[in-house]
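Batch job 17 of 40 flagged for manual review because the log was empty.
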Amino acid sequence: MLYNLLSPLAEDFIFFNLFRYLTFRTGGAIVTSLILCFLIAPRLILWLKSKQAGASNIRAYLEEAHAAKAGTPTMGGLMILLSVSVSTLLWADLANPLVWIAMLVMVGYGMIGFADDYLKLTKKNSKGLSGRKKILFQLLIGTVAALGIIASMPEHLHMHVAIPFFKHFFIYLSWFFIPWVLFVLIGASNAVNLTDGLDGLAIVPVAICAASFGLIAYLVGRADFAAYLHIPFVPGTGELAVLCGALIGGSMGFLWYNAPPAAIFMGDTGSLAMGGVLAAIAIMTKHELVLAIIGGLFVMEAVSVILQVASFKLTGKRMFAMAPIHHHFEKKGWSEPTIVIRFWIIAVVLALIGLSTLKLR
């Protein structure tokens, strides 16, 4: 909004020229989102505690191990959603359709998670929205987003998937691009949801992914940098860096209250929204395969669940002591802070590997 209102005044007032720079507006989005989190959190935590009295926020199979966390309010994703949304609307170019598509996925998936968390509160159980309903709503929102992406992209890119490590190598999917988008959106959102099981475990990798894709969005949106790096140039994607900045600020603000011992949990409200918007940004920047590397920690968590289920059905034996894999290490005697910090280290290493694909062509 500030870009649309103030940048036209730059010719008369040199100060307003700042609002034309993506780097300035991305920095503004980080700070704004962080401050909004600090303003929202105290009241939100008190309100959620009053509403959550007597409700279970711990999965049934973890009630014994995580008994000390019972009573900690969930739905903390609301503070992230609010801060990121307001910050993005304030600092991004609102004439850019890609920003609105990313916001649609983030808010839409966040509302699915909110419905799930709210049912857990009101029905005083830990089951929430049924899996089928979750997937159905994710499919509907994802289909709208996919159609929006196709309509907003240049024709030579709109139904294509870029292959990392190769110069200008694309696979044309035609209308199979829509199922591909749905697979990436739903896979990423649920992978982040599975990772959100320990204090601070999911939010730092989310911030790392947001920072990585903020850089990718900036480079992909610049014809000169894209040509130099031999990566696809996608007009308009630079504005997604502002949204990524808001995600970084919102994530850090949430971490302030989610750091061990957590004063609030993210809940499905936050995890589905964060995974969905990161996937949407990856798709629009034509780096969805790189998301599997940068967000490899989330992939690892999701794959551990798939392997656990497959192993039990095929052999009757479990591959891990418990899945997702962070609970496996809990069962092995690792302390929660040890697991969280080591997983953060893994997330940083994977992000560096993923960013290296920008040059390895």
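Reviewer: the log was empty due to a logging misconfiguration, but the result itself is present. The mean pLDDT is 91. Unflagging and moving on to job 18.
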